[in-house]
């Protein structure tokens, strides 16, 4: 039995099983890579291990003792620490204060606990030296690079006596030099007997840093591998392993129109994108595939004017001169953001109010809102998109994620948009809604709309797109027409591969 054993873990949400008897193990002094596409169940498994979610079935053992985590605090007490992509540091506190946050060494002065700052800095320096790092424990964290901040989080984990450290996409925003620095720290942790769960989409990192690999697909185990005994091809096959026919409309590319709805030339956003160019024709679905940190979300935001950009953008022949969402809307662009909760819906407003946010002016006359026309329009889109609800007046936050997403889509269809920019449109929605959205996109394209589908879900990009662009590190590293490329080639490029893939 490994130091950590998760046996036949089951978890369901709203009757949908997202983990189906998943097994996972980890030894002391071992790095295990946890792989899987978006929605495979990686995050849910880690949230169960960290006490954020309770499991519905299965057993968890740490060092031979069965544990039942009812809160993150209980998981922490057993030596489990998760370091998320969004780092949890306090920028205005010193490195040492961040390391010992919540557990600052103290002495008593006339019965009152007083922080022993000398001991704080001495112990912080010892932990950093243990990791092979020469970071001044007295400087504010805001002055550190991202990779140095990660080291601070790792030192904090060690200060909390962590024996199991989970790293979630730790290199997404790091330069190559910073990645090498992180790997050096991970190797030191491994040598000191810490077990590390390493979550990534980048396969080259898996072969560099891990000892074993566990792959999840659709909430189930799909492969267990020793890193030295496996290949890139084996891992990709385990990650994908499903047929497209079950989910997607049978879509043959039939683009006959030469009308260009969107022309993008040398599109750049400082720090995120560099000289991306493409055209989108009437009735075409352009797929843009990339992994975490590739720049696909920034491309989506920039195309809709939510981020300043350099380069030239034309919408149906009209120059997109001022990067503002209001200008984008006036030119005929619609936008489904990747972060539905933060950027897609206003949770306290009703379904009707959310649907008509972008088209209110069309229901106004003489300064008054024509409520009947507005409500009739909402009901029509609810019917056409099969949005399941009790009433169009209920708060949109009460709908399922899939129905919220359909409402966001309805918002832009109600404006008669020429081009739809759809970022991660099926992220966090159930399979039934996925199928609905795929068929809606297919129908919209047949009716002449141009769709830019930006997604980290490779099967949906392959199934729906007439043309595919691959982003990696903010650059377009590949462009394929329908049928030219397969999963292996595109994943290889998206993960930083430079050489041709053999089949």
From TrEMBL:
One of its GO terms (molecular function) is ATP hydrolysis activity. It is found in: Cell membrane. The keyword Membrane applies. Keywords: ATP-binding, Cell membrane, Membrane, Nucleotide-binding, Repeat, Sugar transport, Translocase, Transport. Pfam families: ABC_tran. GO terms for cellular component: plasma membrane. SMART domains: AAA. InterPro entries: AAA+_ATPase, ABC_carbohydrate_import_ATPase, ABC_transporter-like_ATP-bd, ABC_transporter-like_CS, P-loop_NTPase. Residues 4-243, 255-498 form the ABC transporter domain. It is a peripheral membrane protein. It comes from the Bacteria. This is Sugar ABC transporter ATP-binding protein.
